[in-house]
Each structure stands twice: as C-alpha cells, then as structure tokens.
Specification:
Helix 2 runs parallel beside helix 3 and helix 4 (139-151) packs across helix 5 (165-175). The protein has helices at residues 32-44, 65-76, 106-120, 139-151, 165-175, 195-203, 224-227, 229-238, 242-252, 266-273, 282-292, and strands spanning 3-6, 9-12, 16-17, 49-51, 85-90, 92-95, 99-102, 125-130, 155-161, 180-186, 207-211. It contains 11 helices and 11 strands. Strand 3 (16-17), helix 1 (32-44) and strand 4 form a beta-alpha-beta unit. The strands form 3 sheets. Strands 3-4-5-8-9-10-11 form a 7-stranded parallel beta sheet, covered by helices on one side. Strands 1-2 form a two-stranded antiparallel ribbon. Helices cover 39% and strands 17% of the residues. Pfam families: Aldo_ket_red.
Length: 298
C-alpha cells in the first residue's frame, strides 16, 4: 500500500468511500453485518482512510446512518485503530418527503459536528468537509465557521467538496497557509470535468479526493471497462480488473491524489486496494489519459 499526505495525516493512497453501504443509485445496500464485513476487509487490506457524510442514509429520517455504521465497524475491528483516519462531511440537509437542501449556517454546522462526533464514537473529527456550497451564504463566512471549529478542537483538519477553484482560493485565504487539507470533487473517466481543480490542488499541495472515481453506483463502476476499453485492455495485460487500472491511473495524476472508491462487498474493496501497487508504464498511462480526454496528465 502506498501512503500519501492528507493535511496533518499520512493515509493510504486508496481509501474507502462509505456511501454505498447506506445509499446508492440502484437502491441496493447490504445489511449491517455485510456492510461491517466490507469495512473490515478494507482495513485488513491496509486502507487507513474512510470517507463518510452525515447525509449518507437510506432515508431522510435516518441521517447519520453511514457515520454510525462506520463507527461501529471500526470499533469492532480487531486491528490497530490508531492509524485510521475518519473523514466526514456536513452542510447538506434532508427533510420529510426527501426534500434535499443546503445549510452552511454556523448553527447547523455546529449541531451536525456534535452529531457526527456521537455517530462515529470519537472525541474529535479527523477531517470535516463542507459537503456542498450553500449559495445563500458567502463562502468565506462558512469557512470562518470551519476555522473556529478547528481552533476549538472539534476537528483536526478542514476539507471542502464540490468546490470551484475560486472557492478553493477563498478557503485557503480564510484558513491560512496549509489550512485546507483536501478537496473532494467528482472525477472519473466518465466525469473528468474537475481536471482544473485537480491540477490546482496538485500545484498547491492540497490532497484531492475523486468521488465516484470509478463512475458511481448503479452500473457506472461495473461498466467502466466496457465504456472505456483501454482500461480493460491494460487490465488484461496485467491480469487485473479494469477498475484497478482506473484507480492506478488516477493515482498517477498527482502525488496528492487519494482515491476513495465505494464498495458494497469485501471482494470489491480488496481488489481496489491493490491499485496502489499496480505499476503502469508511461505509454499505458498516456493511453488512459488520451481515452478520457481533457488533457489530463499533461
């Protein structure tokens, strides 16, 4: 397993995205025992970073479901838990009737931090991320709340998600030098549109998490080798899955890239973890970038 820098932490280059254990595009999720088995398989494979969010839940009235599940799984794992980094997110709301919204107010974020602490069973949140911009509020003012939460010892590091370069710059200005640990944006062969933000983060020493790095639940991840044949062809050459090739290619785009594939089965996350050790040639990497387009990797 390779390791990479995430703010004050050193974490595995491949993490686990927890969302599919509680919600997915195809409405299929494992039962609690199977979900915990998947988390344990990730940890056994050397993964030390797990990403979750307060809104990852089967329904609006089960907010915090995924956090509580991750907390229970980590607490019941038999290995050394001291190196595990738990990252969560806040700022998205869900209400009766599955009405989704955004709330970047200090009151909401502080309330959610306390809930996340309880759900995860920890005294301080390792990485707390602003999930999506609240367009009713100035981004800088929201970041001031995050800065205060860090100063108060509620969180160790600050991240942002679904952010533009302008929002990344605002976060940097408010949080100070090296104050922004990570940016989590959608990025995959199917959705390479955050390539500019990826480059910016690489140039500025900010960890970049591609969310849905394989193309998302509901078939995107499963079919990535069919939609982009180059990943299947290279995988066949190396005797590995197309998914491993995708993750290895993404990791090659910068030493700051940390992939967080979601998984509902132990076999899937165990396979993904091996991507950290898959070595692709310069020609293979160039072929992957060319297939995806957008000048990625140049």
């Amino acid at each position: 397993m390779q390791f990479r820098t995430l703010g004050p932490f050193t974490v595995s280059a491949v993490g686990l995205g927890g969302m599919p254990l509680s919600m997915s595009n195809d409405k299929v999720t494992p039962d609690e025992a199977a979900a915990i088995e998947t988390v344990h398989a990730a940890l056994d494979a050397g993964i030390t970073l797990i990403d979750t969010a307060d809104c990852y839940a089967p329904s609006w009235d089960q907010m915090g479901h995924n956090e509580a599940l991750i907390g229970k799984a980590v607490a019941s794992w038999g290995g050394d838990r001291s190196s595990i980094v738990l990252a969560t997110k806040g700022g998205i709301t869900r209400s009766e009737g599955e009405v989704w919204g955004r709330d970047g107010s200090p009151e909401h974020l502080r309330s959610q931090v306390e809930k996340s602490l309880r759900n995860l069973g920890v005294d301080v949140l390792d990485l707390y991320q602003f999930h999506r911009p609240d367009r009713t509020r100035l981004y800088g003012e929201v970041m001031e709340t995050f800065a205060a939460l860090r100063q108060e010892g509620k969180i160790r590091a600050v991240g942002i998600s679904n952010a533009s370069i302008e929002e990344i710059e605002i976060a940097q200005e408010v949080l100070g030098d090296e104050g922004l640990a990570s940016v989590q944006n959608e990025f995959s062969p199917r959705h390479p549109c955050s390539s500019d933000e990826l480059r910016y983060c690489t140039e500025n020493g900010i960890a970049f998490f591609p969310w849905s790095p394989l193309g998302g639940t509901g078939g995107g991840a499963t079919a990535v080798g069919q939609r982009f044949a180059v990943f299947a062809q290279i995988g066949k050459t190396h005797g590995v899955s197309p998914q491993q090739v995708v993750l290895a290619w993404e990791l090659s785009l910068g030493d700051n890239v940390i992939v967080i594939p979601g998984s509902r089965r132990p076999a899937s996350i165990t396979d993904s973890a091996r991507a950290a050790d898959l070595e692709l040639s310069a020609d293979e990497l160039a072929a992957c970038s060319a297939a995806v387009g957008h000048g990625i990797g140049e």
